[in-house]
Amino acid sequence: MLETTLHPQGRALPAAPNRGRRADALRWIAGAFFLAALAFGIVAWAVGDVFFLRLATEALIYGGLALSVDLLLGRTGLLPLGQALFFGLGAYVSALVLKHWAASFWLALAVAMAASALAGLMGGLIAIRSKGVYFALISFGLAQVVSKVVYNTRELGASDGLIGVPAAQLGAGLSTALPLGFFLVVLALIFATWALLSWLMDTPFGRQLAAVRGNEQRLAFIGVDPWRVKLAVFVLAATIAGASGALYPMLRGFVSPELMFFQVSGNAVINVIVGGTGTLIGPLLGSSLLTGLRSVVGSWTEHHHIAIGLLFVIVVILAPRGLVGGLAPRLQAWLDRRRDQELS
Amino acid sequence: MDWIQFVLAPQVINGLAIGVAVVLMALGLTIIFGLLDVINMAHGEFYALGAFLAVVLIGLGLSFWLALLLTPLLLAAVGYLTERTLIQRVFHSKDRHTLTLLLTFGLGVLLEDLLKIVFGANPLRLETPIAGATELLGLFFPNYRLFVMLFGGAVIAAVWLLVFRTPLGAMVRAAAFDRHMTASLGVPVHQVYAATFAFGVALAALAGVLLAPMYSVFPTMGRDFVFIAFSVVIIGGMGSIKGAVLAGLLLTQVQSVSSLWISPVWSDPLLFGIMVLVLVWRPQGLFGRLGHA
Amino acid sequence: MKTLFVATLTSLAAASVLAQTNPIRIGVVTPLSGTYAGIGQQVRWGLDLAAREINAAGGVSGRPLELVYEDSEANPAVAVQKAEKLIQVSKVDFLTGTVNSGATLAVGQLAERNNKLIATTVSFADSITGDKCSPNVFRVNARAGMQSAALADWMAATRPNANVFYLGPDYEMGRSTVAAFKNAAEGKGARTVGEVFAPLDNKDYSPYFGQIRGARPTVIYTSVAGNDTVRLFNQMAEFGVSRNVQVVGASGTVTSQNLAAVGRNADGFVTGVGYSPLIETPENKRFVAAFEAANKAQPDLYGTDSYGVLFLYKAAVEKARSTDTDKLREALRGLSWATPQGVKTIRAGDHQAMQDMYAVRVNGGRFEIVGKVAAAAAIGPDVCTRF
User: Fold this and answer.
1) Burial degree of C216 (CB within 10 A; 0-12, 13-18, 19+)
2) Which domains are present in chain A?
3) Where would I find the H helices in chain A?
4) DSSP state letters, B143-205
5) N or C: where does chain C have the smaller number of CB atoms within 10 Å of the terminal CB?
6) Residue B208 CA: distances (Å) to CA of A13, B219, B221, C101
7) Residue A85 in 3-state DSSP?
8) What angle do CA C6, C322, C123 make, to 5 degrees?
9) Is the pLDDT of residue B154 over 50?
10) In whole angstroms, what is the distance from residue B205 CA to residue B68 CA?
């Protein structure tokens, strides 16, 4: 009902889910996803695989970045074209902590999150004043400027990046060098992030975000400062992106400036759109699917970029709700029918 | 005096050549936004397409001048088709802004990859059509650059006249101001949209052909101008032609002259800083927008 | 009893023959798409030709070579992922193909952690066999320091005490290449009259020409590459900046990938490099003819060095009588082998290949040899301390 008051003309991209009803379908899909991931991990470990476990871990790490993009795009209506800035920042900070301070998982993660939050605050103060294409361009420009600086800074390895990042210790003898162990840790972290965000969307803050997306001016009329709301979500998104980035050097043992480049930001946006904007689980699904696809298709043909590009354009034109966005209503309808049948 | 003649003047004149190039790109962008409310993130790729098409035409035996004439026309047709088949589809949804942004973004990625596949990743050459240099103020300037400045300037003036002094231009401005009213007055708004998009694309293609002998041709060349063209459009005011021209010329001068004192690597960050400041002070840019200012 | 004995013996023999003829897999992670696809193409041509020749002559210790390719997209993050696929899934015995130094270093680290060896045939950053050397990383091509040495030598001989202006792209590689050459040149008496760094992917170099003209150099040294070279050289010709000035630069500045686009504006450009198709040895002539016949294109230094790496591998495996990593590493250290550029030797201290270096001038699309520096003089000191 809130929806109708704020959006009398309906919408093309999926709206924030009506709590209670549509949330069911999304939770089902999410549950299926996490269980499947768990099963995948165990099977892969059982057959002694290393590559696919690490690829899946990488897909989840990029999934975290996609979550942060969805928070801005799907929930607040802001398109970020430079989210890789925080991802890369988290990665570099994590690498530096692990190399020069202590090889502790928790320390690296904490410091990276703090750094990203701070950067998010500074970036947000600049970017939040605008929306639409202005926001997209400022976000893009920020990432360009910072990545250029990193690319030129010798102390950060310049264009070669930093190698020699040791595996991080989680305590109790667990190290991120273990493929299955680290996969499960990352899965748990992503699950926690997803759960936190899902919960957050049901709180007043979550509804304020939806309001910003719908009609910012009216939000001011009910006494909430949209600027603060946007800044808060920007910082949150930056922190999530930074936390995901922090996991990257633990997986691969190095960082390079390419982690901040536009291709990473662009891929994240593509992952979100294909997966399903605004659904939170959609971006995770999209990220997993497309990371796998990029790797597999890339081994067959040099023309893999265009395949993904084509897929993206087709989705935008024909299925702008993305995979989950299209699937969820059908699933919801089926669930509702089942529930009605049970009740009657 | 020496310094002004031998150091400052060349910077200013070279800045003008770059400025004309940037304005041509920014014009197309701002016109498309001004009328259609569409941010064409594939604008750089249409610029690249223009350059590649010219290479192909010249390879087939046409002269550079014929290619200069034909390429914008051919790409205008491509632009018209793109608008009617792709952009129209997402045009009427309420999240049109984000969707068209994403669509043109995806289109840009696609076009760039297509160029790489068809032409390979290596750069291609376009011979300078006007050889030689002229002495001006004691220094030599390549004749072709002077031509680009003059020709580009003429095109910009023509566009201005077209938009502000002809009935066609009035129709376009009316449609930008209020499309429903304009439609109800019998103006075929859909065709106007497609034609305007085609026009913007043609300008980008023209810039592509014009600049190819100076800047060479390769698949990622579209990225050369994306950042600066968008910055100019934003600073000048999205949809404002006056803004695009003035901001384009001014900002390229700022970049050109400032490179005398600050390391050239700070050019782009400087531009970015100016853009942020303008957005803070005047969010609609210096001159507002087409039909409105 | 006797039948059982004979049967066991026969099956053992059969098994060992089978073991001998299963292929040796070489993993090639190289840019097949993207800006560096042209280099990846040469790498592929060189490797394919070498593999065909080696297999036609009986393979390595009787086993055929099999090349498995993956696209690194010139991105270290992708390169590492693909390299891991090659090691874990394709079970390769040896890696090669990396182009940019970031990728070589990152994949080298992965190779170390998986106990495999990698040899690069393109990356020329000194750090790879210098301060970031690794016991599992080898380099078959010349490093930047060797290229500078050859060029500085030629310049001192033909233009003693020249006034040199430096123009480079503003990023680590561009700056360090300029710095390295400046060092070598000043050591031989050249004078620096100016230095400017333009942004990477810069379109228009005309803002710098005033400065260059004002400094009146006799030599301009540049470390731009790829598309930047095309713009710089064409614009320098347009503005008459390169008239009466000797233009020299890094080996990556003018290559077969951008030569066509620069055209005659590259004539007169001199660089220090480890290869030219015009090297007059019978091996090179044979190699160039075979390469052209197979690919309808001339080999460049990337194609040639990639061709050479498989012969190095063959020589090492046959010396070690094994593909085991530790034995191979021992065999590689100090190993000399024949290449189209002559005999190269892998220096044991840092795994860097030593070879004669050439000063080469571009003229009408050909890379003419105008100078030569012997391997020992060009190699430079061994600064690798890890092993």
Assistant:
1) exposed
2) 18-260 (1.10.3470)
3) 2-6, 22-46, 51-70, 76, 84-96, 105-127, 133-152, 179-201, 204-214, 216-221, 226-252, 262-275, 281-300, 304-318, 322-343
4) HHHHHHHHHHHHHHHHHHHHHHHSHHHHHHHHHHH-HHHHHHTT--HHHHHHHHHHHHHHHHH
5) N
6) 35, 12, 9, 33
7) helix
8) 155
9) yes
10) 9
- Domain C8-142+278-354 CATH (choose: 3.40.50.920, 3.40.470.10, 3.30.390.10, 3.40.50.2300): 3.40.50.2300
Stretch 130-169 of chain A: residues touching chain C, C-beta under 8 Å? 151-152, 154, 158-161, 163-164
Contacts with A306 from chain B: Cβ below 8 Å: 110, 113-114, 117
- pLDDT at residue B289 in the model: 61
**Element of type H or E holding C11:** helix C2-21
- Cβ–Cβ under 8 Å, residues B30 and B230: no
Domain map (residue ranges) of chain B: 7-122+134-220
- DSSP class of residue B278 equals H
* Closest residue in chain C to residue B135, using alpha carbons only: C239
Whether A5 shows a pLDDT value over 60: the answer reads no
Residue C310 backbone class (left: φ over 0; alpha: ψ -120 to 50; beta: rest): alpha
B259 contacts C226? CB cut-off 8 A: no
C34 to chain A: nearest residue by CA? A302
A88-113: average pLDDT = 95
8 Å CB contact of A159 and C173: yes
What's the residue count for chain C?
387
Tokens of C47: 């490797």
Residue that is written with structure tokens 């010349």 in the block: C142
Whether residue B214 lies within 8 A of chain C, CB to CB, comes out as yes
Q: What is the pLDDT along chain C (387 residues), one digit of tens a residue?
A: 666 666 566 556 555 555 557 899 999 999 998 888 889 999 999 999 999 999 999 999 999 999 999 999 889 999 999 999 999 999 999 999 999 899 999 999 999 999 999 999 999 889 999 999 999 999 999 999 999 999 999 999 999 999 999 999 988 788 888 998 999 999 999 999 999 998 888 888 888 888 898 889 999 999 999 899 999 999 999 888 888 899 999 998 999 889 989 999 999 999 999 999 999 999 999 999 999 999 999 999 999 999 999 999 999 999 999 999 999 999 999 999 999 999 999 999 999 999 999 999 999 989 999 999 998 888 888 999 888
**Positive or negative CA dihedral for A45, A49, A54, A55?**
negative
Q: Do A266 and B268 touch (CB under 8 A)?
A: no
Please return the burial class of A93, using the count of CB atoms within 10 Å of its CB with bins 0-12, 13-18 and 19+. Answer: buried
Instruction: Supply B260's token pair.
Output: 């005398």
The Cα C285–Cα B275 span in angstroms is 58
User: Which chain A residues are within 8 Å of C109, Cβ to Cβ?
Assistant: 163-164, 253-254
C-beta of residue B212 within 8 angstroms of C-beta of residue B54: yes
Kindly report the number of other CB atoms within 10 A of residue C239's CB atom.
23
Chain A residues inside the 8 Å CB shell of B265: 148, 152
Report how far residue B42's alpha carbon sits from residue B47's, in angstroms, rounded to the nearest whole number.
9
Q: Does C8-142+278-354 match C145-273 in CATH topology?
A: yes
Per-residue pLDDT reduced to its tens digit, C286-326: 999 999 999 999 999 999 999 999 999 999 999 999 999 99
pTM of the model: 0.89
pLDDT at B257: 84
Identify which of A49, A50, A256 has the shortest CB distance to residue C77: A256
The residue extents of the domains of chain C are 8-142+278-354, 145-273
Is 1.10.287.3510 the CATH classification of the domain at C145-273?
no
- Chain A to chain C Cβ contacts (< 8 Å): 89
CA–CA separation, B76 and A14 (whole Å)? 34
CB contact under 8 A, B231 and A316: no
Nearest to C52 by CA among C222, C261, C287, C268: C287
